[in-house]
Amino acid sequence: MTMSELETMRHSCAHVMAAAVIEMFPEASLGFGPPIDDGFYYDFDLARSLTPDDLEEIERRMRRLISRADPFEYEELEAGDAKALLGGMGQNYKIEAIDDISRLGEAPSIYRSGDFLDLCAGPHLEHTGKVGPFKLLSIAGAYWKGSEKNPQLQRIYGTCFPTQAELDRHLELLEEARSRDHRTLGLVLDLFTVNELVGPGLALWHPNGGRVREIIEDFWRAEHRRRGYELVFSPHIGRAELWDTSGHTRWFADDMFPPMELETQSYVNKPMNCPFHIQIYKSRTRSYRELPLRWGELGTVYRHERSGVLHGMLRARGFTQDDAHLFLRPDQLVDEILGVLDLELFFLKQFGYEDLRFTLSVRDESNKEHYAGTDEVWELAERALANALNEKELEYTRAEGEATFYGPKIDTHLSDALGRLWQGPTIQVDFNLPERFDIVYEGQDGVRHRPVMVHRTILGSMERFVAGLVEHHAGAFPVWLAPEQVRVINIADRHVDYCQYVVAALREAGLRAQLDVRSERMNLKIRRAQWQKTPYMLIAGDRDVAAEKVSVRLRSGQDLGAMDLADFIETAVRVNAERAAGYGFDE
User: Fold this and answer.
1) pLDDT at residue number 46
2) What angle do CA 297, 300, 306 make, to 5 degrees?
3) What whole-number distance in Å separates Cα of residue 476 and Cα of residue 370?
4) At what angle do helices 3-24 and 52-67 cross, to 10 degrees?
5) Residue of 213, 294, 455, 456 marked active site
6) What is the secondary structure of 268-326 as a DSSP string?
7) How far apart are CA 208 and CA 365, in angstroms?
8) 428 an active-site residue?
9) End-to-end CA, the chain
10) Contact 510/569 with Cβ under 8 angstroms?
11) Is 409 tagged catalytic?
12) Fewest CB atoms within 10 Å of the CB: 140, 254, 264, 426?
């Protein structure tokens, strides 16, 4: 079954679900019910809150409707007739949707199946009997049209597949995804929390999470310096005029925090770092000899994400971007794009991401007037991005019309251990901000020229990237990233002194080691360390102390037996330094 056919089946299943809900709650008002990447949803305005038991009853009614094999019948109506029909049914949200359809110059249409009808453009299957095996998954809140100013509806998520085997496999993956949920593992590993008193979407990094973040940031800084980047810092707020000039207050206002008033001036929490970097560029005259300039910043930004879309650290209101901006001459563009691609491929491999998907977003050639910049610079930028991808022999999808109005871009998506795609690095050419801020450089010909500006992130946001790592590795970070690499466990109180000596030796070698000498059974302490995903456990008893050895266990449960402490340290230090994927032993 093609993806288009699967979407049609899921759309039809959503239609059947809506029919079952209306049958169960005759006064219900319908919102939208589209297919999505891995299933479908439908929004309802109901007199009471739904429960998991309701989902079971809705499923039962859906199975009965499917067994009837009612045909899906399409009918196109005049707007007034459609309003009269749906208004008589009390479907006020649909009437509003008809107005939206009319403003687009389109005619409304309905689909009937049995006694149920719905405002819908389709397509649908031939009849309800062709809907495949399905499962209703969850209930969530959702604002009508996604706006907090509108009523909140109840959203039912479900999925549907051509065969029961495919559905069962998908449900297994969902269960695996739940076990990897970064919000749950974040508590188990003591990485971070989101506190309502602090504010939704604002993460607190605990010591373990702070350690992981520090490791990533230190690696990031060292590698950027090695590749010719310089690091800059900018404040968390800026005067409103800065964002007026950049265009954010016009194009991005809904995603910005409201302004603050101070001494008759308005200030705004920064949603992006780029205008600050431009001001650093403008602080003095620049020569063609200085270019390219590569400036990076781990800068915290703030976005007014709606409460309904906040999701742990994957969707937050405050997050730190590994931002960088390149200022360069047009003739340097290809080489600089190649350098960024090389950097992102190197980074992602270190973190365990091998399956990458690339998209080149370009402008719509039939609507050039909607884009900033001349034909010459667009052709230069698109050619530079495509040439860089081709030179790296990276397969990519060309997305016509998906460029932003200010320039083309390369987006990279990461496929994790479950095959899910995550937003990764972005390389964005920008013709707009150099023009808006009037930045120039003195050319070799003595004339002022406009530099090309490139925005790029490698990790995206630290919050989202770490959350993705947690889920990709199921909390079992590679040794080099683990906040605690080694836990030393005594068997009896008489072994405490030796365990303290072992911990000191490990720390002296640069390993992150902790001591567990609590008055508990050894096996309980080992299980706790495994549960908390500590890569190595070193256990010391009478024989270990006498022989100056340690008994080594891995978080996988494998018992490697007694080993010289020096040999263990040598291997663990090598694994840490090489950022290796395994444990370094013949596991």
Assistant:
1) 94
2) 140
3) 47
4) 110
5) 455
6) EE-S-SHHHHHHHHTTS--BGGGPPEEEEEEEEEE----GGG-BTTTB-SEEEEEEEEE
7) 50
8) no
9) 42
10) no
11) yes
12) 264
- Annotated catalytic residue within 303, 363, 495, 555: 303
Beta bridge partners of 410: 360, 427
Find the catalytic residue in 323, 411, 416, 516. 323
Residue tagged active-site, from 118, 274, 286, 495 = 274
Among 286, 325, 363, 533, the active-site one is: 325
Q: Which two tokens stand for residue 13?
A: 């299943």
User: For this structure, is 127 an active site residue?
Assistant: no
The pTM for the full model equals 0.83
In the three-class reduction of DSSP (H, G, I as helix; E, B as strand; rest coil), residue 265 is classed as strand
Q: What is the 3-state secondary structure (H, E, C) of 450-516?
A: CCEEEEEEEEEEHHHHHHHHHHHCCCCCCCCCCCCCEEEEECCHHHHHHHHHHHHHHHHCCCCEEEE
Q: In this structure, how many other beta carbons lie within 10 angstroms of the beta carbon of residue 504?
A: 13
- Structure-block tokens of residue 246: 């950049």
Tally of CB atoms within 10 A around 148: 9
Look at residues 294, 322, 281 and name the one whose alpha carbon lies nearest to residue 226.
294
Q: Is 495 a catalytic residue?
A: no
Phi-psi region of 421 (alpha: psi -120 to 50; beta: other; left: phi over 0): beta
**Token pair 């056919």: residue:** 5
Check: CB of residue 157 under 8 Å from CB of residue 136.
yes
Residue keyed to tokens 């100013």: 149
Let me know if 323 is a catalytic residue: yes
Q: CA-to-CA distance for 269 and 259, rounded, in angstroms?
A: 7
Are 97 and 119 in contact, with CB atoms under 8 Å apart? yes
Separation of alpha carbons 420 and 38, rounded Å: 10
Which positions ≥6 away from 172 have C-beta within 8 Å? none
CA atoms within 13 A on the CB side of 259: 17
Give the DSSP per-residue string, 369-402.
GGSSS-HHHHHHHHHHHHHHHHHTT--EEEEET-
According to DSSP H, which parts of 68-206 are helical?
Answer: 79-87, 92-103, 164-179, 182-188
Contact 277, 286 (CB under 8 A): no
Q: Which of 409, 525, 549, 553 is catalytic?
A: 409
Hunting for tokens 């239609």 — which residue is that?
15
Count CB atoms within 10 A of the CB of residue 54. Answer: 19
User: In the numeric block, which tokens belong to residue 136?
Assistant: 């209703």
- Identified catalytic residue from 154, 321, 428, 532: 321
List phi, psi (to 5°) of 168. -60, -40
Q: Please tell me the distance from the alpha carbon of residue 489 to that of residue 496, in angstroms, as a whole number.
A: 9
Beta strand pairing call for 448-449 and 441-442: antiparallel
The DSSP call for residue 492 is S
Q: What is the mean pLDDT of each run of 10 residues along the chain (587 residues)?
A: 89 96 94 91 94 95 95 91 88 90 87 92 92 95 85 95 95 91 92 91 95 96 96 94 86 83 90 94 96 96 81 88 94 93 94 92 84 80 91 92 85 89 90 91 95 93 93 94 96 93 96 93 93 95 92 93 94 94 82
Angle at 216 between CA 211 and CA 219, to 5 degrees: 125
Half-sphere CA count of 166, side-chain side, radius 13 A: 12
Position 587 scores a pLDDT of 58
